[in-house]
Amino acid sequence: MSIMMPAADQAVLARRTEIVAALRAIVPGEGVIDSAAEMLAYESDGLTAYRQPPMVVVLPDTSEQVAKVLKYCHGQGIKVVPRGSGTSLSGGALPLADGVLLGLGKFKRIREIDFDNRVVVTEPGVTNLAISQAVAHAGFYYAPDPSSQIACSIGGNVAENSGGVHCLKYGMTTNNVLGCEIVLMSGEILRIGGKSAENAGYDLMGIITGSEGLLGVITEITVRILQKPETARALMVGFAEVEAAGECVAAIIGAGIIPGGMEMMDKPAIHAAEAFVHAGYPLDVEALLIIELDGPQIEVDELITRVETIAKGCGSVTLQISNSEAERNLFWAGRKAAFPAVGRISPDYLCMDGTIPRGALPKALARIRELSEKYGLGVANVFHAGDGNLHPLILYDANKPGEIEKAEAFGADILRCCVELGGVLTGEHGVGIEKRDLMPEMFTEIDLNQQQRLKCAFDAEGLLNPGKVFPTLHRCAELGRVHVHAGKLAFPDIPRF
Description:
Elements: H1 10-14, H2 16-26, E1 32-33, H3 36-39, E2 56-58, H4 63-76, E3 79-83, E4 99-103, E5 110-114, E6 119-122, H5 128-135, E7 140-141, H6 154-160, H7 167-170, E8 177-183, E9 189-193, H8 204-208, E10 217-224, E11 226-227, E12 231-239, H9 242-254, E13 261-266, H10 267-277, E14 287-295, H11 297-313, E15 316-321, H12 325-336, H13 338-342, E16 348-351, E17 354-355, H14 361-375, E18 379-384, E19 389-396, H15 403-420, H16 445-458, E20 484-485, E21 488-489
Parallel strand pairs: 2-4, 3-4
Antiparallel strand pairs: 1-2, 5-6, 6-10, 7-11, 8-9, 8-10, 12-14, 12-15, 13-14, 13-18, 16-19, 17-19, 18-19, 20-21
Helix pairs in contact: 9-11, 9-14, 10-12, 14-15
Organism: Bradyrhizobium septentrionale
Cofactor: FAD
Domain FAD-binding PCMH-type: 50-228
């Protein structure tokens, strides 16, 4: 592992047998996993380049059990890493050798469907897609739709503020979550928000959403559901140049048109997806846009005409419009399967996640091409083009010495480029460990200290998911006391991460 994590507490490891017994008393039956072989399934999340078996895995199935586990670990000074379905692509659920891996996979119940208030109250282990399936019979759905929606849990979506292809028009997770139940490290259970879009006091839901498991463990979530639009049709537009596709994205948004979704793939991603799904993608183009327009039929028909005109003005060479729901779904099937499809053409890949202003898309694409040549590694680009969220897939072979290090350096340069162009380090995957050491590229020491003070308000001992998000781990009592003078850090030989 090339990323430094907090040193294991040997005193805690020496008490492992005692700790496991105490946890079994709280979560009886099959709720505790402590054998090395059985814990292998939890040694990594979706960022499989980094692995670390946990000290023990605990699988509670009630909020009360979660509260008791956290209260025990708090009293014993034991670190805890919350985990949903393990689909995180930033290492957010990477375990610690001296920590408890707290899995929420048993929280699989939808507690309430309230069509009058257009909300669903769900446990965190319910998959993203299952929420839409539960309300589909009444013509409703849950809008955020990550590509991993068949597997990713709604709790993990809240922790990472996940997006998806339809978030351009309908918002990210944070725009669709109204309330939650959260258990603090002390074992205290809090209820934040509710069924109303507006609540008195501070916007605590805005703090919890995207907090990556650093503030508390979410055990219940209230999400907004929407009525399905009357009509939804997709356009598949091909371009001879990637930059032209980027210009088309900016032109559509600049014309005041907000599609339900607008995605881009470059040639390597197009070929991989087509070979995997057979969606009918054109193979002789350099870039492909999938643009979905939804709403009343008369509005959709008008918008299709306007988008066709804009696309032709930007130099499109192919244009196909879906004529049925099956065809629309087929257009999206290739994009949804792009990540596993690329896995068929490369032994390994790193999926990056950065965001830029839409107008900077052509510059970002040109820079990624230059970096690909610099590092001698291929790249397949898949973008949430409408909101500037880039997902370059860096292709490498972990069996070749030095390639993982080259891939990491390539990815870091892409993220630096995003910041330089006026964007940010992440769009929906979170910071985790992947982008942790790049946080100073975007934030000053003052910014980072202020963010850490917020964590301290929720988790004063720093026991929840330590080693993630922040490049330097401070104890709350000493936060801000590290002094840099004339560009020199005191005690430079002390390991920091």
